[in-house]
Specification:
Elements lengths: L4 E6 L3 H12 L4 E7 L2 H11 L3 E4 L8 H11 L4 E6 L4 H10 L3 E4 L5 H11 L4 E2 L1 H12 L11 H11 L4 H8 L3 H15 L4 H10 L6
Parallel strand pairs: 1-2, 1-3, 3-4, 4-5, 5-6
Helix pairs in contact: 2-3, 3-4, 7-9, 7-10, 8-9
């Protein structure tokens, strides 16, 4: 029986996954057993391969990374999920952890941190990039919540999709929800933000660096 840490890589760019593979091959304790390029595929392959650690981007086609984390965690809370993302905004860290992730590092960090984080998660520890952890603690200590802080993971996911220009039907299809359910979430989001239009949502998303102008 192998004592290696079984890892699944989830990123929608094959070149990025290949880079992860090369990096992790240098660590004899780690074995990459599966790869996925979407949230849906990650959910399916998790059930098939039962990895110890999932390294997942959150900017994924389909259901998206946050929703994939939530679904995998609700089905199997023993699998440790490490977010490896370009997003450095604290709201993404908060949402990923709320969904069930046990670690969060950014793609701008030293590549060796990915190896270290995988090992630490496999031992049952949590791991957040030091700079992000410091910013998270600082903002919490000052009570600096943004208007997005009260969002559930589902609301945040739909907020991001609305800001990116997806309509209600497209979001419903992507998340496997009914049109009415998405419409209700859209109304809740607008009420929480005290805005009336999707254009207002997009402006808020730009202000908090959720999307680029």
């Amino acid at each position: 029986m192998s004592d290696k840490i079984k890892v699944m890589l989830v990123d929608d760019h094959a070149v990025v996954r290949a880079g992860y593979q090369m990096l992790l091959k240098n660590s004899p304790e780690i074995e990459v057993i599966a790869e996925a390029d979407s949230g849906e595929e990650a959910y399916r392959l998790h059930a098939l391969h039962k990895p110890d650690v999932i390294v997942m981007d959150i900017s994924l086609p389909g259901m998206g990374g946050i929703e994939a984390i939530k679904r995998i965690h609700s089905k199997d809370n023993q699998t440790k999920i490490l977010v490896f993302s370009m997003h450095e905004e604290i709201i993404f860290v908060e949402q990923a952890l709320q969904a069930g992730a046990k670690g969060y590092i950014t793609k701008s960090t030293d590549p060796q941190l990915l190896v270290d984080a995988i090992k630490r998660l496999s031992r049952g520890e949590n791991y957040i990039d030091a700079e992000l952890a410091q910013r998270l603690a600082y903002e919490k200590s000052r009570g600096q919540d943004t208007p997005l802080s009260d969002f559930s993971t589902r609301e945040f996911e739909i907020f991001c999709m609305l800001a990116e220009g997806l309509n209600t039907s497209e979001i419903a299809k992507r998340l496997s929800l009914s049109y009415k359910t998405v419409a209700n979430y859209s109304t809740q989001i607008k009420n929480k933000l005290d805005v009336a239009t999707v254009a207002d949502i997009a402006r808020i998303a730009i202000r908090y660096n959720i999307i680029q102008a």
